[in-house]
Amino acid sequence: MFLRVWGQRGIDEVSGLVSRLGWQDVADIALMAVLCYNVLLLVRGTKAFQALAGLGVLGLISLGARRAELILTSWVLQNLWAALLLLVIVLFQQELREAFGRVSPSRLFGHRLTVKPEAIEAVIQASFDLATREVGALIALQRQDQIDRMIRTGVPLSARLGPELLVSLFLPDSPLHDGAVLVRGEQILSAGGFLPLTTREDLPPKLGTRHRAALGLAERSDAAIIVVSEETGEVSLAIEGQLLRDLTRERLRVLLGSAFRATIKTGPPVRFRERFSRHWPLKLVATALVVVGWVLVKGADRVEMVISALVQYTGMRPKLLLVGGQTERVEVRIRAPRLALSALDPKTVQARIDLSGAEAGGHVIPLTRRNFALPVGAEVVQTDPSVVRVKLEPIRRVAVPVKAELRGRPPDGYLLTQVTVQPPTVEVEGAESIVTALRSIPTEPIDLSSVSTNETRAVKPILPLERVAWADGRPAELQVTLKVRRGVPAQTR
C-alpha cells in the first residue's frame, strides 16, 4: 500500500538519489545510523521506545498523506510534529540525558582506568567462589565515569582488593551482604551501596533486583558490574547498557580484560563478527530508519529562491588595496528543500570573496557554492553576474604638494602679495594609480576678507579622495603665511 501511495514518481526519485550517491552521503548515513542505534539501545524495552515507535508510525502516515495529497491529514500531522517532539523531550528527559552522556567528549576522549590482571583475577575468583556457594553478589568496577555519586548509602572501606575480602562481604552473616561493592583499581572503596534500577520492561521476569540494579548502573555509566545470582549461581556482566548472562570464567576474564585494557592471554578473543552480530535487529532497524530519513530529506520537494547578496571581500594582504568599481551585490538563485529555506534569512546571505592568495593585478573570480553560507542541502543554481572582477594594487606612500585654498579677497586698499605653506608637502598613502595621479592637496578654506596685515594661520589639509589616507594616520599641522600691502589692484588704475 505504501508503494502505491508513493507512486512511480517516488520510485524514480529514489533511483535518482541512489545513482548520485557520494561518499559524503555514505558517511552521513553511517554516522546517523550509529547514533540512532545507540539511542534505540538505550531506550529499548522502555516507554520511550514505544513513544519513538509511535512517532515513526505517524511519520509514515504523514508521508503517505502528502503523497496521496490528503490535504487535511497532512496539515494536521504537520502542525502536530512540533508539539509531539516537545512532549517526547519533556516526558523522556532522563533517557535523553543518558544518551547524550554516552557520547560526551569526556567519555570518548577521556583517560580510561587501566587495572592490573591480578586485580581482575581476584574479582573473577571471588565471583565464582560465591557462585559455587550460591551466594548473591553485586560488584561494580569503576572505569572512567565517577560512579560513587550514583551509589547511595554505601559504607566506606578503602581496603585492598582481595578475593577473600570480597567473599566475606557477601556472606549471609555480613551486615553488608545485601548491597553492592564498589571497586576502583586495586581498592574496595565501599560496600552495602544501592544502585539505580533500570526502567526497561523487556527483561525476563525471573531476573531479580540485583540484575536490574546492575543494568541500571550500566545504562547510566561505563562501569562494569558483575552479578552473581543466589538462586541459580549464574554469573552475569552488565556493561555498556547490556546484560551478558551465564558467563564462564574464561569468558568473563576476556570481557573484563578488554574493558580495562588488561593483558590477559587466556581465553578466546571477542571477535569482530560477534560484536557486529550483537543486537542485529536493532542495528537493522536503526539503519532502515536513517536510510528512510535520508531519502525523505534528500529527495524532499525543492523550491527556488532569488536573493540579493552583499559581496564581502576578505583576506586581502596588508600591502594591497581594492581599486575600481568592484561588485557590491550579486543576485543568486538558490534551490533547496522547503524546510531548509524556511529557516534561511535572505538578509544574512553574503557572497564571500577570499583574496588571501591574490597578487597585485586584475582577477576574475567565478562564483560557486563555496562563496555562500547556505543551509545543508542547498545548491546555487545561478548567479548574476557569474564572476566577480577585482583589481588589486600595491599601497604606495608619496609626498604631494599642498595648495592653500583661498576664498574672497583682502579688504579695499590691500593686496595679497605672497602665500607660503609650511611644510610645503604632506605624505599620503593609497593605491598606486590613485596617489601618483594627485597633483596637490588642498587646505581648509581661508577667508581673505579680513586680512589687512601679514599673518600666519594654522590650517588642516583635506584629503580629496576617500581611498587615500594620511601616511601617519592623522593630518599634518600646516602653517599658512599671508603677506599683504597697501595698494590698488591694477585693473582699477
Strand order of the largest sheet: 2-4-3-1-5-6-7
Q: Which ranges are low-confidence, i.e. pLDDT below 50, for 5 or more consecutive residues?
A: 1-6, 106-111, 263-270
How does CATH name the architecture of the largest domain? 3-Layer(aba) Sandwich
**Straight-line distance between termini:** 112 Å
Gross morphology is elongated
CATH names the topology of the largest domain as YojJ-like (1
What would you give as the CATH superfamily of the largest domain?
A: DNA integrity scanning protein, DisA, N-terminal domain
CATH class designation of the largest domain: Alpha Beta
Task: Please tell me about this protein's structure.
With 493 residues, the chain is of the alpha+beta class. It has 4 domains: 2-107 and 279-298, no CATH class; 117-260, 3-Layer(aba) Sandwich (YojJ-like (1), CATH 3.40.1700.10; 302-385, RNA Polymerase Alpha Subunit, Chain A, domain 2 (Beta Complex); 398-492, YbbR-like domain (RNA Polymerase Alpha Subunit, Chain A, domain 2, Beta Complex), CATH 2.170.120. It has 14 helices and 22 strands. It has helices spanning 2-19, 23-43, 47-67, 71-91, 93-102, 105-109, 117-133, 163-170, 209-220, 249-259, 272-277, 280-298, 338-342, 432-435; strands at 137-141, 155-160, 180-184, 187-193, 224-228, 235-239, 242-244, 302-314, 320-323, 329-337, 350-354, 361-366, 379-384, 387-403, 406-407, 414-422, 425-431, 441-442, 446-447, 455-459, 468-470, 478-486. The protein is elongated. 23% of the residues are buried. Mean pLDDT is 80; it is low at 1-6, 106-111 and 263-270.
